[in-house]
Protein 1
Amino acid sequence: MTNWREQIPTEEVIQWRRHFHQHPELSFEEIETSNYIYDVLSTFPNLELSRPTTNSVIAKLTGSAPGKTIALRADIDALPIEEEADVDFKSKKPGIMHACGHDTHAAMLLGAAKVLSGMKDQLSGVIKFIFQPAEEVPPGGAKAIVDAGVLDDVDYVFGIHIFPKLPAGMIGTNVGAMTAAQDIFELKIQGKGSHGSTPELSIDPITIGAEIVTNLNNIVSRHVSALDNAVLSIGQFTAGEVFNVIPDTATLKGTVRTTNAETRKLMKKRIHEVIDHIVKAYNGTYELHYLDGYSAVVNHEVATDIVRQAADKIVGEQQFTCPKMMGSEDFAAYTDVTKGSFFVLGGGTEEEGCGYMNHHPKFKINEDALAVGMQMHVQIALDVLGKK
Ligand code: NI
């Protein structure tokens, strides 16, 4: 097992990445992407391929001796963004862009599959390479993969996310919550319209909505410990058509992010209570749709230790303790059911030309990071399953 690092397919990984980048597909529409992945995987030895959910590809590699089962996951979907990045392999699809780096995730995992598929005799146990669609749009693609039973026999699951503004190839880990749970609510307030000169004849949904916004914003400050994490934001408040008519209805839409399950429940309960009491106080009625989104990705201590030990070998000192992120990720569906670790790969600093974050039209990464991510996958697999 000495020289696998000298045979890593760095050039191919970059080519695959650029192919994905030029041919992005939106969540739940990754037909060509998943077919391409399937075709590439078909050229590697010893893999058993399956497609348990729409647009997913699973490659199973069974070692020559029994042992643990691990899963390595890449998401493969792109975003509805018009690319403005300064690269010569720009998206060929107008309005669609790999602006979250899932093209790199898919390519790095293909590279790892290529390396590991040739090492069957050196492995005790099973590796499942999970190429997963639809990370960007709830309910997400991960939940369906879990529901299909892919994780049932998995001891540990690992996932990488690339982020610019960090030196290319730097590895960030942490134990506990890595991302937040994100829930979404939509409220329609039904009042009664009237002319602006006679508010006494109205039930003013704008006043009710304004009270609700103020009071929802107080939930975090008055009910959540300063040592805990929760954020509530209203992103939409729509009502009325003209300056002098009180409308019939108002609509509010917002998001709630939390990092522990108890606080998540508390926020949901208080939001319902606050809305109910305020609307009733003003004699209005309402409809509230509360959508439970992804839960928080929670990194297991043992799985994270495995990542850190692999990082010691691959990047040495180029590591940092990654702070919690209030974004959300459907990798949570995996850490909900098994021990997992989701870690960060630096995609290049501003000085490296990578100054725009994920989901920005100018999002760009330093491709030197790809070899590191690929080697992390391989090293993790070898550390858990390699014959001693
Ligand atoms: Ni992403």
Protein 2
Amino acid sequence: MTNKTITKRFYLTTPLYYVNSRPHIGHSYTNIAADTLARFMRLRYGKDHVHFLTGTDEHGQKIDKAAQAAGMAPQEFVDKISATFKDLWTKLDISYDDFIRTTEPRHVKAVQAVWKELEKRGRVYKAGYSGWYCTPDETFWTEGQVFQENGKNLCPECKRPVERIEEENYFLKMSDKQEWLIRTIREAKDLVILPETRRNEVLGFLENNVLQDLCISRPKNRLLWGIPSPLSDAHVTYVWFDALINYISAVGYGVDEKLQKKWWPADVHIIGKDILRHHAVYWPILLEALGLPTPKMIFAHGWWVQGGEKMSKSRGNVVDPLEIVDRFGVDAYRYFLLREASFGQDGTFSEEAFILRYNTDLANDLGNLLNRTLTMCEKYFEGEIPAFNPEKMQKLSYDEANPDEIAKLIFKNRATLEAMASNLPDKILELMRRLAFSEVLAEVWAIVSEANKYIERSAPWALAKQGKFEELRCVINTLAGVLKVTARAVWPFMPTIGKEIWTQLGMKESIEKNIFIKGSVDEYFLTGGVVSKAAPLFPRIESKKGDLT
Ligand code: MSP
């Protein structure tokens, strides 16, 4: 998404979620971010030019164990949990174009085609493996990587016990591609890793370690729940190797070359920082080994933490998205996650922080601005936004014989707001190139709060009393202009609320139109229109402590 990589089609992905347990905030975060980006890109490129992929990761030891614990057959178990993810995405307005499950035949076929292609290219071999395995992370570790505590061997990543493994496995050659990968990441031309700190982390890892070849299989006598290897009856595919391939299997790898060419390489893989190495090291090398281009960008976001620790089921500190959505609404939830933490940094989730943002940003700033504007249209202009004639205001403000200082100020402040609104699309465009969601929202709220100040400074109720209707027109038309631009700018973040504001302002055309073209919002500051009666968007919440977790 740097200038160079902008094309007229956009393919974005989320990780595939493990179906060992129900989705929590962390999972919903990636999908809300991806959905916002997808909506934003559809406005720019058109619906058919954006492909948004998500799905579920359904193989491996961890899921096999979870199915056993639930007393269910693995397939029955994954069907059930995968559906809970789909339901949540519907509830959260996630507009994915495709949902891939790694147990689907189209994926299984592609994974097997990859195995064969790698063999043909001499990139895989069989050898004895001895080392450690972390089931929660589904990751292999070497002797030197694990650490000891109280006589136990622990995973360097998640600090949970690892198990000793000795078995015959298949390996993907890695080390001969190490220099190529370092170069590619350093150049940041074909493969951009963001944020910068994550890029440095990957480079640091690559420059200080000799890459071990990647184990890509598990013996069937230890694990049946995997995709059978086409090279050996005794092996299934290692879950990470299987899962990464989804990004190409979903766009036709091995079956539909035209489709694959249409979408691959992906424009961005959005992931959490804990799975950076799999995406930024193993995946590009696997693609290179297949003769395919790397993704153009990998963006690793931070974690939602609670009590100082990453939210996760095993730590027992998860917050259920559905509970929050039921209490506060989908759009407030989407807004909070994308506004509270800068994308790339960790965020702390608490009920207090949520309610504070809700009441301040949504109920007070945005909700009140709309409410006051609509009420004034109702009260002073019979339910219409007054159309605006700049010439009349110009004359009033600069009439030398009878200078009207109030009119002048109102006209000047309008110009400030108009300029802010007119520059907003460019600012958003720039920020969205680096997925700076929180900063985009901060820019929108800067105008919203300026508009609220405009009301205070212009005192429209006094203008009405004094019969200064030209000035009153100017103020209300300006406020409506700001709100129209705001509705469109927040729509990718809050689709329901964006639309609601838009229709309350009496706008008939679709909200889904490209505003990222210079001058495209200027007309909103001239035209009038019939508005709806004010209805509160965000009823204020009285804080009740401690019932979110
Ligand atoms: N199945 C693998 C990904 C395979 S992608 C080819 C996996 N699944 S996961 O369900 O464990 O995690 C999926 C994503 O959710 C990761 O990007 C992870 O960072 C994210 N989150 C899980 N908990 C999180 C938080 N508490 N906060 C933010 N995101 C976190 O890994």
Protein 3
Amino acid sequence: MGVRPAEQRTTLLRVPELQLDGLVGPTHNYAGLSPGNVASQANRAAVSHPRKAALQGLDKMRAVAALGVPQGFLPPHERPHVPTLRALGFGGSDADVLAAAHRDAPHLLARASSASAMWTANAATVIPSADAADGRLHLVVANLRSMPHRAIEPATTARILRAAFPDTTRATVHEPVDSGGDEGAANHIRLTPSHDAGADEAGTHVFVFGTGDGSSPPKVHPARQELAASMHVATCGGLTPARALFIRQNPDAIDAGCFHNDVCSVGNGNVLLMHERAFADGTEALDRIREATAGGVIPIVVRDVDLPIAEAVSSYLFNSQVITRPDGGMTIVAPSECGEMPNARRALDRIADGTTPIDAALLMDVRESMRNGGGPACLRLRVPLRRSESDLLHPGFRWTPDRDAWLRAWIERWYPDSLTPDDLADPSLLRSMRDALDALTSWIGAGSLYDFQLRGNG
Ligand code: SUG
């Protein structure tokens, strides 16, 4: 689809940004936990396939790495999370805790069992060293407080990110902000003056909030990102004020199912791919982005008549990864659903037809994740690095073809083929999940990451 011969492209040869994908966890399931997330609601209580889900995620990592960009992964969290259930008053042995929660409060067991940490676009907001006043890489862990099943994640996420970026002289992992709901990179876009998405050049940060500026919130669904939190993340991450812009998400888009901004827009380098209804005050928002980027941004706006917002949500076109390849071209990595829905297909063809900086498209099957509202872009946290920072990621978290083989074998060994909500109460699932994570952390070699490893079981 629309790929120009390599010799016609400008060769930039800079180190592009790192993609850090979440490894899908063994308890991946459909519990209908996210109001406002259309897919999560529609698939509540469906049978999930954790092994297939994790392998689909690895296939995507392999395909993205093949574009020539650095790829890493973040391990799953321990689930069911017994400490959460104990804090809610369930006692006895771990098996007792699971049995009582299953019997008396299955919704609490479901909350404590979600594999939602796989969507690492919600793990943190990343301020690269080129944009931070102190010249260091900053990762601000998201508090995810608007959804109870996701609010469990930040403590473990902080631990994992600190293990993944251990050089504290060059990288800082911040505790979550306490000033309102924050959903991390899913509500944040970084634009640069060129095709380059890495941190060798400074960028402009667009923080997209859903509520908190005094204007009317969405009528039907919750707005998860609050303005105060976005502002706090920007300062906490050391972002120089001139580089930060705060734009309101269109409340109607949230009501249509864009529970995160990355369901209706995505930026990469100097490209901003967006649905025309993504932002409140659409034209003005785009003007402000143009001004902040000194006119450097190349907007690709998909109109509602071509792709109604409801189809943007069902196809997840905007939840594609747009990746700058080392040859300077850009590939859009879209969910396979986009190839099957005529309007989304047409929009994708137009985006990648060679008239925009995006000159190639790749369709990926991540359907197990999609059924919970997680597309290709949700599954990864982007970390723009300078050339001199390519060693910042602990090697244990790197994806390479050799390490892929180990991860595949590990998934085949430990992951259930299918899972229903009742299975979550099975103590043997808990045991095997812990054995699996012990094997994974030994292999990663960055120390203990989980509560059950640090405090003992439970
Ligand atoms: O937070 N789904 C996730 C999907 C997150 C997608 N991430 C981005 N857009 N970046 C959420 O709503 C559903 C779990 C369930 O229903 O079982 C869930 O948590």
Protein 4
Amino acid sequence: MTTAETDSCLETTGIDVSFAGLVALTDVTLRLARGEILGLIGANGAGKTTLVNVITGYQRCKSGTVILDGEDITKASPEERARRGLARTFQAGRLFRRLTVEENLEAAAFGVGMRRRAARQRATEVLKLTRLERLRHAPAGALPYGEERRVALARALTIRPRFLAVDEPAAGMNETESEELLELVAEMRDRDGVGILMIEHDVGLVMRLCDRVQVLAEGKTICVGNPDEVQRDPEVIRSYLGTRKVSVDAA
Ligand code: ATP
């Protein structure tokens, strides 16, 4: 990577969001570099999805800025952000269910302005990278849940993102599926240098996979640090980890 690419980062400063008087986020600052995985954790209603929505352009903020590689993208549409290299996956896959897996990938490529031939080539490349070639012609709507989540990640990778937000990638998966998915996410970081922001409730998985973790409670950041620091933080233990069964023995 060049120096400019190493300096590449996605940042938010002072994000405030309210919903009809309910304060969802207060003064939230976040920094994600390329090639790192930042886990975003916190109790239900802490504001994780709202923050990802602000970053990816699905939610306006009352104040604050979102900066991508030094450019203010606070007012950019989700499509514009995708063209600039910011992708996302949703809790529910949101694939085009009547299209095949390959067509879903091509649709993502068209969305960022690729022509037909380039889109086809990129889809082929990504199917190989994500070990999904055998599902190329399968209708997305007929996929088992674990495969669907994998295809959603592959689709995000199609646009060659510099940054990717993933919302609970392992939710509802069995252990094998979530291990495979974890491997795929780590490959996107290590091979493609993608900076990944990951909401995930499986704390064991977060602690094993993430380079840093940011913890939200009632719309505010209460801790940011490496997994060890975060697991030892008294406020994090009191407000979140203490209420959960944490298994990080495999770390
Ligand atoms: P979960 O882990 O349950 O997904 P979360 O940490 O992602 O929770 P958010 O979904 O961001 O939390 O919600 C933060 C707060 O904002 C909650 O109190 C939620 O009820 C509220 N909220 C979120 N979206 C809306 C909305 N569109 N309208 C009104 N209130 C909302």
